[in-house]
Design goal:
Length: 234
């Protein structure tokens, strides 16, 4: 067991670190960001409290885990509307800023490229059955293992309009799936065993679509946060 006593870890960065079973005594935690699960403070699991507060602040957040086809259509319409506002905000900034990273995170344009990848993977490949739905500008997550035939050029610097053109086609693809979605489809599962990713069997269709909703929701929040930081720099 590693012990840290009377050490200043201000601004330390932890990536892919497990703190399972860790004990904190007289520890000052301020301005800490991360996903919380089973975090117990004075005998109280605070994760549900944080979740409830986020839902209070963003009432549309609770709509991002729908159970029926109408709910999926509503959630996707909300996301398209919210993203339209975010893109409009981004267009007020110099394009060079949209290629700039904030705190080593993806730039705004890289974020859009990743969302294009996510919709291609979970809707184009998994739901629609296209074994290779990729565009050369699609961007997997940074820790992805890499696969033959799947593009991955993190350093590419396409224009915002070029990426939005791909995104418009991917959004249309998802929208059409949502518009024709039935309860039978939601209750079904899909399998993709061809080389590439995802490569899973009997994966619930509902979860494929929920993954896309979650990616779109969370990455828009990150994008809005980073746009605020970029605005302060300019």
């Amino acid at each position: 067991m590693t012990e840290f006593r009377e050490q200043d870890l201000t601004h330390a960065r932890f990536e892919r670190v497990s703190l399972r079973g860790a004990a904190f005594t007289e520890v000052y935690l301020n301005d800490v960001h991360g996903e919380l699960q089973n975090v117990v403070v004075h005998g109280v699991d605070i994760a549900p409290l944080v979740d409830a507060e986020l839902n209070r602040r963003m009432p549309e957040r609770v709509l991002m885990r729908p159970d029926d086809s109408d709910g999926f259509r509503e959630a996707w319409a909300i996301l398209e509307r919210l993203w339209e506002g975010t893109v409009t905000r981004a267009r007020t900034m110099p394009e060079d800023a949209l290629h700039r990273s904030v705190d080593d995170e993806w730039s705004f344009i890289q974020t859009l490229r990743h969302l294009n990848f996510a919709s291609a993977a979970w809707v184009g490949r998994m739901v629609l059955g296209n074994a290779s739905p990729w565009h050369p500008l699609d961007l997997p997550w940074d820790e992805a293992p890499g696969w033959d035939g799947i593009p991955w050029d993190r350093e590419a610097r396409p224009s915002l309009d070029d990426v939005l053109d791909i995104r418009a086609r991917r959004q249309t693809m998802v929208r059409q799936v949502m518009e024709s979605l039935t309860e039978e489809q939601l209750a079904s599962a899909v399998s993709r065993t061809e080389p590439g990713w995802p490569q899973v069997e009997d994966f619930p269709t509902k979860e494929c679509l929920r993954i896309v909703l979650n990616e779109e929701w969370e990455h828009r929040l990150y994008a809005e946060r980073d746009l605020t930081a970029l605005e302060k720099e300019n």
